[in-house]
Amino acid sequence: MTAAGLRRLMTRAYLVVFFGYLFLPLGIMAAATFNASRFPTVTPWRGFTLDWFRVLAEDLRMWQALGTSLLVGAAVVAVAVPLGIAAALLLDRLHGRARTLLYAVMVSPLLTPGIIIGISTLVFWKQWFGVTGGLFLTVVAQSSFIATYAMLMALARLQRFDTSLEEAALDLGASHWQAFRRITLPYLMPAAYSSALIAFLQSFENYNTTLFVRGVETTLTIYIATKVRTGLTPAVNALSLVLIALTVLGAVAYEIMRRREARAAEHRAP
Amino acid sequence: MRAVLEPALRRYGAPLTVTLLVMSAAWVLLMIALPQLLMVDYSLRPMLPPSKLGGPEDVHTLRNYGTLWSNAIHLGIFLKTVWGSALVTAVTLALSYPMAFYLAQVAPKRKLPTLVLMLVVPFWINEILRTFAWYIILAYNGPLNALLVGLGVWAEPVRLLGGDGGVIAGMVYVYVLFMVLPIYNAIETLDRHQIEAAHDLGAGWIAIHRRIVVPHAKPGIAVGCIMTFMLAAGSYAVPALLGGPQSRWFTEIIYNWFFEGGNWNQGAAYAFILLVLCVGFILLMMRLFRVGLTDIAR
Fold first, then answer.
1. What pLDDT, on the 0 to 100 scale, is given for residue A167?
2. Beta-ladder partners of A48
3. Where are the domains of chain B?
4. Half-sphere exposure of B158 (CA within 13 A, CB side)
5. What is the pLDDT along chain A (270 residues), one digit of tens a residue?
6. Burial class of residue B273 in the structure, from the number of CB atoms within 10 Å of its CB (0-12 exposed, 13-18 middle, 19+ buried)
């Protein structure tokens, strides 16, 4: 075998191992859903069953937790996306040191461990406003870092914005508000949709931050973690399988959307 | 102030500029800066019953920080969290670099979108679920034990859950993509001709990576290491699910101060120590890879 052939073979082996490493654990978790064993496992195999989906569907607390997650996710989208877009619009019109400082503070939540975001939110609201953990603080704490994603996505789009459009509108007699509503805002909508999707998923899957500010509320992610530690049955696998299937669909849809958008941007570029 | 806002005022007009300012201020002050500052202030005060708040005993003190040094168990867990997170970062880097290089420079253009999608999709899946997958793999009667016993590596199943090894293996799995993607993005901008030129001039693969690819990938490596270390040191989910009483992580100690010990001031101090650790690691990486904040926070 030639050296080049050997290198190709090794590359192929590495790819197989790496992607196997990524997907095999998820596959095993999914497979355990269908094992008629009281504890989720694939070894030993005790026969095929779909019963754990029925057990899952009859689990009232799971449905409650799902409801809480959907509610929190919707609220986070409503709070974080507008905040992030407003911040991006402001940053886009700032220069020099003010911009650098503001940008650093706005990006800092992404470099802060999630539990610290939860703790600082909890302490702050308790001390200043007497508010304790619950749905409200969960939304506030999650939004504080999810708004950063919205800000970054809006800012990236604004940087490709042809500002002469706005200037032309203003020159032709449009009011500031008209120019904003008819030109800037429509231009930002794709970024708004993408960040809404990201914000919802980030909120839905959040654990570390939520754990500290949830009070007695239970989101679906918290519920899963509790179940794993106390009272684990393959119903948790069934739930995981459903969530993974939905996530994969969402991720693929998002990627297709993003790529179409990127191709469109390429065509528009001179 | 007016000069700073001049471009915004010209573009958006006064009412809209004020709206944007108020919204940004609400986010930056109420949701980011003030909570952090208050947490630090809180950590510097002793825990007091409500009747004594504001009284002569309610003064700033470093006592809550001293607890970490006087409590040998907590200090041990803190140090383990530091080296454990560093280990997770190092292993993740070793696993990720070849993949990032392959995607950015070797993979055929036609296959690239699919490969990237295959990497990104698991990245979207809930951290708890990815951790749970390892819970099943590592279980006493789980597939890994079955495989190793079947191969004759072990005579009988071994406890894989509840120890530091399981926690670290789980973290590598859960955070590996935070390393691959930044390095991939960095190497992608490297002109392939540079590699070809070095190759034509007789450089071996090691020299090419050491002298061309790695220097170019530095900002990506720095970002990947920072993210991975921060996520590992701040992880609560992975040690809670895969660890046990013998393998507690520093985040679990913090959680206990809040919800079992009931001493929030003490918990806030520990949380701030964790934050300082992460900021320290960021500064170390910036120094080590000679990259600036603008390279990192893009």
1. 83
2. A35
3. 71-296
4. 13
5. 677 888 888 888 999 999 999 999 999 988 888 888 888 888 778 888 888 888 888 888 899 999 999 999 999 999 999 999 999 999 998 888 889 899 999 999 998 999 999 999 999 999 899 999 999 999 999 999 999 999 999 999 998 888 888 888 888 888 888 888 888 899 999 899 989 988 999 999 999 999 999 999 999 999 999 988 887 888 888 999 999 898 888 888 887 877 787 777 777 654
6. middle
CB-nearest partner of A115 from B125, B137, B254 = B254
A253/A231 Cα distance (integer angstroms): 35
CB contacts of A226 in chain B (<8 Å) are none
Instruction: Find the length of chain A.
Output: 270
Domain locations in chain A? 65-234
Say whether residue B20 is in contact with chain A using an 8 A CB cutoff: yes
Give dist(CA A51, CA B39) in Å, integer: 48
User: Residue A214 and residue A135: Cα distance in Å, rounded?
Assistant: 6
Residues A124, B38: contact at Cβ < 8 Å? Answer: yes
pTM of the full predicted structure?
0.90
Q: Cβ(B285)–Cβ(B225) under 8 Å? A: yes
ipTM field: 0.89
User: d(Cα A122, Cα B255) in Å, to the nearest integer?
Assistant: 12
CA distance A64 to chain B (A): 19
Cα B190 from Cα B221, distance rounded (Å): 14
- Residue count (chain B): 298
B71-296 in CATH: which number?
1.10.3720.10
Report pLDDT for A270: 46
pLDDT in tens, A169-202: 888 888 888 888 888 899 999 899 989 988 999 9
Record: contact B132-A29, CB cut-off 8 A = yes
Distances A128 to A174, B46, B54 between C-alpha atoms, Å: 43, 18, 14
Buried b (16+ CB within 10 A) or exposed e, B240-257: bbbbeeebbbbbbbbbbb
Given the structure tokens 């970490």, which residue do they identify? Answer: B68
Tokens of residue A166, six digits: 């706005």
User: What is the Cα–Cα distance from B68 to B76, expressed in whole angstroms?
Assistant: 9
Of the pLDDT bands very low, low, confident and very high (cuts 50, 70, 90), residue B1 is: low
CB of A43 less than 8 A from some CB of B: yes
CATH 3.40.50.20 fits A65-234, yes or no: no
